[in-house]
Amino acid sequence: MKRIASAFLSVLLVLTSVSIAPAAQVSDTVQTQSVSTRKYANIVVFVDFKDTTHEHEKTELGKCYKEDPKITEYFEGDEEHPRALKQYVSNISYGQLNVQNIIPQYDSENNKIEPYVLSNDVSYYGDRTVGTSGPALGDTRMVKEISELLAKDSRFPKDAIVDYDGDGCVDNLMIVTACEKGNSNSQMYGHKSTYAGTDEINSKKIGSYTVIPEGLAYFGLSETGVVIHEFMHTLGYPDLYVNTNVSGVVPVGQWDIMAMECKFIQYPLAYFRSAYSGWFDIPTVTESKKNCSIYAASSTTFDTRNNQAVILRTDYSSNEFFVVEYRKQKAKYDVASYDDKSYEGKIYGSGLIIYRINASLIGGNMYGPPYKAYVFRPGDSILNGYEKADYTNLDKSFLSAESGRTSYGTHDKNAGIADNAITYSDGTNSGIVIENVGSASGDTITFDISFADDGQEGRWITESTDTLGLSLSDIETYTDSEQNKYFIANIGDGYGYATNDTVLFKYSDGAWSKITDGPKAVNDGKSIVTYNGDVYISYLDTNFYARVDKWNGSSWQNIYKASGYSDNVSLVAGSEGIYFSYTSQDNSNIYAYKYDGNTLKNLSDNILAGAVSSMPANAAISVDADENIFVEYRDTANKSNIYIKKYNQIDNSWNAVLNGSIQANEVVLSNNNGKLYLFKKGTAFDTVKDSYLYSLDYANSAKEWTQVGTNSITDKGVNNASLCFDGDNVYVGTTASDNITFVSGLVDGEWQQLGTNVSIQDISGLNISYGNSKIYATYLDSDTGKAVVRSYEVKSADKPEQPVEVPITEVQLGREALDMYEGDTFKLTATVLPVNTTDSKDISWSSNNEAVATVSEDGTVTAKSVGTAVITATSTNGKTASCTVTVEKKLIPITEVSLSESAVGIIEGNTHKLTATVLPENTTDSKSISWSSNNEAVATVSEDGTITAKSAGTAVITATSSNGKTADCTVTVSKKEIPITEVHLDKSSATLTEGDSTTLVATVLPENTTDGKSIKWSSSNVAVATVDLMGKVTAKSAGTAIITATSENGKTASCAITVEKKLIPITEVLIDKSSATLTEGDSTTLTATVLPENTTDRKDISWSSSNNDIATVDTTGHVEAKKAGTVIITATSTNGKTAECTVTVSKKEIPIVDVALNRTSATITEGDILNLTATVLPENTTESKNIGWSSSNNDIATVDSTGKVTAKQAGTVVITATSSNGKTASCTITVEKKEIPITEVVLNKTSAAVDEGETIKLIATVYPENTTNGKSIKWNSNNNTVVTVDLMGNVTAKKAGTAIITATSENGVSASCTITVNKRDTYTGLRDVNGELTYFNNGNVDTTYTGLVDYEDSTYYVRNGVVDITYTGFADYEDDRYYISEGVVDTEYTGLVQDGDDWLYVENGKVNYDYTGLTYYNDVWFYITNGKINWGYTGLVYYNDIWFYVSGGMIDWNYAGLVYYNDVWFYVSGGMIGWDYTGLAYFADTWFYISNGMLDWNYLGLTYYNDMWFVISGGTINWSYMGLVYYNDIWFYVSGGTINWDYEGLIYYRDTWFYVSGGCVDWTTAVIEYNGNKFYIQDGMVDWNFSGTIDYKGYTYHIVGGMVV
Predict the structure, then answer these.
(1) How much is the pLDDT for 219?
(2) Which tens digit of pLDDT belongs to each residue from 597-636?
(3) What's residue 221's pLDDT?
């Protein structure tokens, strides 16, 4: 929940280290504050169902329905009932949250609840099917129906406030249902969710709602605890218990109501009340402190609430930390104390508790481990990598002097949870110790905090974190022999997404340096090496083409670019050059090249020659110190076998080093000292997720991989892996699927983790290297987007002892003798002793009689013929072991009898021969066959298999072998056919009229024919008559046609049809127009049509006019308008049918076509007058003859409405006459000038007295005013030391004295003024005149001045020459605007001031028009643009390192949803961008996927929300998607947008059929049934290429092409 706005923005809350006062409070900076209460609406609705049995009334909460509502006890509360919801929330928030319960069904007068009875049974509302918008379908039905009932219920106050937080949604709707808790398939259990519909209550959308089945008491829980627990979910508090399917796991137990509800109500943990609700602050401690003291949660008041817990942090993790909190048990819980008014009755005791918080987990403990919160308890143990967290010693999870447990934790870094260490989720000891815990008898408790100080031994040390100032994504590292580290990385966009921009940088001698910007590349598949001082990178460009580029110190040079889509780019450096490989995107080929700095050589030929398949994947190249080149790839079409090939530089060929003996989905290949090393990643694709390292001593011609180490390196799926070497010592770095990164080394032949974890954060791009007796790990921290270098100092104990040569002393076989039958095979296994021999363990096999038995390279013996042979196994040093093989002849019984046909049809009297075959062909049994029929009345069979058909029916013919094997053939005997001989029609001829019809009847003979009796009908002339399938003949037009009936065997009969014509009279006449309007002289043509179209009457039309004077019409319907009026035009058919058209004729208009002037040009003198006359043509125009006149330049000549032109001044002007319809005519007038000389000059003053420094202006006027002379004046002073005058007549007094100013015209006429200059007072400013500050200007009171004046360190507002102390407002001065308060500029004021309709931002008394940002005023934060409130702005604003959401110019604290800003959609919660939020957000009727506060359009995968997994595509839930989705190394089956956990069967995906079980691809090998067929599954996929016999679960299956036959 958000805090008070001013407090939040004024102090940006950051967890920091604090000093803890001795024997006092944790922080001495807590200030006493007044309580600020926020309200929260909770609508409580009770419902029955159609099938309610009222068994619920036996529970306490159920009594609300009948006996006693207990509204006070459960919901409202008072001093006697503090456990009620409202009282509880008020108490734990220290009065900061006030729940407003609205219970419309409560009848207070009768103390009774009248529940709503919903329209369906409880199962209808318990449907857990997820709807298209998210929530369960049953919930949606119930909430919708309740909203409709509330709208109709007069008891529900329609003016009640239901949205106190202002987010447009009802704060909470609490539904108490009349039923017991449902089973796992029912929605009727206590839960909170968010409604996705559009229904409203009191005009507010329904959002958060809780469902509380009152029958939860059936499980021994308190209804009050359930009510509170579910309500706290609406405030964002997560569940702290583990999924109920996990028995006995209690990470928190009864220390928090969100972990275990009960009637003995307890507080939530302090961390959640602080972090989730902001009701108080918790200080952070990072170093040892003595004599700390904190309050108990139940003892804390508002003023001391900030001193009830401490957060403890180390630099090991930024996401995990520890909290120490004091809890005090009030009354030991029992039946008698149930009515106790305090909380904390069922916590385990009084004292300190210590718990761990994982801030990176968004949810709670529901699906842990790892857990959001875990309370430490003595004696816990590890189970599956995490705390067992069972009930063991949970009742001892508190510390106090009274309990005897006064310390917890240890500084021993090797200690774990079982040693009572305070550990992180990965089991690493934090080294923190809480000790010297005092008595828990009072309101406070004392204790000491001690952090470990054990140096760096055995720990991974952070050498450095990059200082580039960039957000990086997807990094690759190369370390040269000097431990210089080179990086190539994609640059992130600052919001957690990668761009295609890259950067090349370096870390050397503790310093980071950017080398250059890199090329555009996708954020996957990059590699980097150095060779001869140059940096080389391989990558996929933005077209997904493989490229290799070289940075030569000044520019990038392209070495190679693929010609098409590519994948699996790999790059290494050798002593002679660089080597790189890649696969085509369709995995059809591998390409390999060498570049020596000058020449590019193609090594690609025949890499796949001799391969089992042509589907290589995950190809990688490697080169050793002797420049041996290797390529590794995974054969995806053959059980993911790993193949290694070595390049022969002599004949440019690739030879197999080892093929297919290791199967893996992902591997890492490396080499060292003549050995290849293959790290097999255990992934989610593998049933067993263990990861192993194998070596191949190719330098000594080894033929098989040897496992390095006796154990697996990790048993969790691996995301990142890297190898490095120190001589013959090998180290492996891994990042497991749980984000734990560590490095392993061999110690006494076993893999052991070296030191602490490298990281427990989400990282990528792990690379390890060895140098300076240290292992260096480089990686990208995905949370910060920064490259990190950490190191570990290798101790001698971390290195294996140098091996001692141990020769083979003995070879053993599993047996000394072996009996076999001809054709059998058996694999012998040879064991060399001792098992720790350092000799090669390769075995050579031989047979002394290959005619009897042979043996292959892997020891497989094949029996050839009867006899005896000795098989010998020989070791590399000549030790042998033998086995005597005796081969006997093999009896081959008949296993099957097959017939040439399994079914046959025969006609009575005919015969048919069957052929029987016995299998196998080489059987040693007799091949004789006996035949029999089960119904000889239908068919008999002879000794040679000949069948004779006797009568119609069915019989089964059986062939039986000598050993009783049988095969059957079903024989169907049919009767003999009787053909049709004749077809007879009931008519041989008929006469019809057009349109009539008749039906012919056909009969086939003989009646007992076995042919089909269907008849095919045809007409010889379908234009005359047609016939349908039933013999119905329809007459079309006059003429003759033959109708023929034909049987199935071609017999026919005919009928002659004569069709006579039908007379059709005209019934109607239509004219194409019912009316028309014409102008005199115009014409139009009317068209008449007779109906029906097929009339047999003549179609001629006669035309007539009702008045030929107005309009005439000719025989064709052509109408001509004669004069104005109306006339009827009539069209008449040959049989008298008529149609009319009304024609209206209007008078014809005659427009003006021209205007003529009496003159087209003239020359006149200024002041003269000229009359122009205009005439319009034609004279008989019907338009107005008015003329408009205009002049092109009224300064030269004007013209009036009658055409009178008056000359004004010299020049040329055009006079235009314009008619009423715009026709014009013009006359060009030339005006010549009239000369008028100046006769007099007059000054505005003949004398003047001025003060020194004063300036006055003399004005000279020449007469007459209309003179044609120039009017410029020349000014002169006869004494410039006294007075000067400028060109404009401005006279400036210089010093006391007298001077004459003369003004002279161009033609020499002059006038003069005598100026007397006096000395004067020059003061300008404020003076105190009779107690009133007055403004003087150059010594004179200036009553005209209004504005600002500086005076004695202040600036005053002057109005009409006097300071106005009554004025408060704004004043402008020298381009700035100032804020005036009581006549003085208020330089102390910074804030908002209203100015008319605007609110301006004032800073130190002056309007700051440059300011754009937020400001706080009257408890509201406003958005300022260019110095004033921007009421029209709605969007995001960046302020004090936080992005806020502004709506209508103000921060909207209540808004929760999406906001579009700078082409990005951001997720806003509580008025700010929720950068920490990753999940779903409902907006505009759509569920969107949010990643770190932004809508992630590119995300494709799964996300977990409201107890369900949804598939995201293009940033939204893809409700229509059905198929597989890869997520966290697992392939899930999605149906309707969510994971279908119940599905078991096959799924077709990307051209492959996968086996899905329990919602995931099951990578097992099995036989499964799907859609009635059985399929062979190999590694989770239907193996269409497999044919053979397999044994599975006690059955033997014959497989052909992947299917059981």
Answers:
(1) 32
(2) 999 999 877 677 555 445 566 678 888 888 889 888 877 6
(3) 38
Under 8 Å between Cβ of 955 and 963 = no
For residue 305, CA distances in Å to 91, 277, 286, 1306 come to 12, 13, 21, 94
Q: What are phi and psi of 765, to 5 degrees?
A: 70, 35
* Residue of 1572, 1573, 1576, 1541 whose CA lies nearest to 1557: 1541
Beta bridge partners of 1530: 1527
Rounded-to-integer distance, Cα 761 and Cα 425, Å: 11
Coil, helix or strand for 999? Answer: strand
As a whole number of angstroms, the longest Cα–Cα distance in the chain is 164
Per-residue model confidence (pLDDT) at position 339? 45
Tell whether omega for the bond before 834 is within 30 degrees of 0, i.e. cis.
yes
List 1469's β-bridge partners, or say none.
Answer: 1456, 1472
Whether pTM > 0.85 for this model: the answer is no
pLDDT tier, 4 (very low <50, low <70, confident <90, very high otherwise): very low
Residues, the chain: 1605
Q: At a CB cut-off of 8 Å and minimum separation 6, what does 1396 contact? A: none
pLDDT class of 329 with cuts at 50, 70, 90:
confident
Per DSSP, the three-state class of 225 is helix
CA 1126 from centroid of its chain's CA atoms: 74
Determine the Cα–Cα distance for residues 1339 and 510; give it in Å rounded to an integer: 73
Output the CA torsion sign for 573, 576, 578, 584.
Answer: negative
CB 785 within 8 A of CB 763: no
- Residue 395 has φ and ψ, to the nearest 5°, of -75, 0
Q: Which residues pair with 647 in a beta bridge?
A: 654
Over residues 441-446, the mean pLDDT reads 92
Query: Concatenated DSSP letters for 287-345?
Result: S-EEEEEEEBGGG--TTTTTSSEEEE--TT-SSEEEEEEEE---S--SSGGGG-SSS-S
pLDDT at 1567: 92
What mean pLDDT is predicted for residues 673-677? 87
Please give the structure tokens belonging to residue 681. 């990643």
d(C-alpha 381, C-alpha 373), whole Å = 17
Q: Contact at 8 Å (CB) between 1350 and 1380?
A: no
- The strand ranges marked E within 1472-1594 are 1472-1473, 1479-1483, 1486-1491, 1494-1495, 1501-1505, 1508-1513, 1516-1517, 1522-1527, 1530-1535, 1538-1539, 1544-1549, 1552-1557, 1560-1561, 1566-1570, 1573-1578, 1581-1582, 1588-1592
Helix/strand/coil for 1096: coil
> Burial code of 1164-1202, b = ≥16 C-beta within 10 A, e = fewer?
bebebebebebebeeeebeeeeebebebeeeebbbbeee
Residue type, 202: N
Q: Where are the beta strands (DSSP E) in 1114-1223?
A: 1118-1121, 1125-1133, 1138-1146, 1154-1157, 1161-1165, 1169-1171, 1174-1177, 1188-1191, 1197-1199, 1204-1207, 1211-1218
Taking a C-beta distance cutoff of 8 angstroms, is the pair 1283, 1294 a contact?
Answer: yes
**Which amino acid is residue 1171, in one-letter code?**
N
**Helix, strand, or coil here: 695?**
strand
**What mean pLDDT value characterizes the chain?**
85
pLDDT at 42: 95
**What is the average per-residue pLDDT within 398-414?**
92
H-run or E-run covering 1335: strand 1332-1337
- In sequence order, which residues have a C-beta less than 8 Å from that of residue 1067 and are 6 or more positions away? 1091, 1092, 1095, 1137
pLDDT given for residue 1013 in this prediction: 83
Instruction: Tell me how many helices (H) and strands (E) the chain has.
Output: 7, 140
Q: Are 139 and 196 in contact (CB under 8 A)?
A: no
The Cα-based distances of 110 to 71, 105, 117, 351 in angstroms read: 13, 12, 20, 46
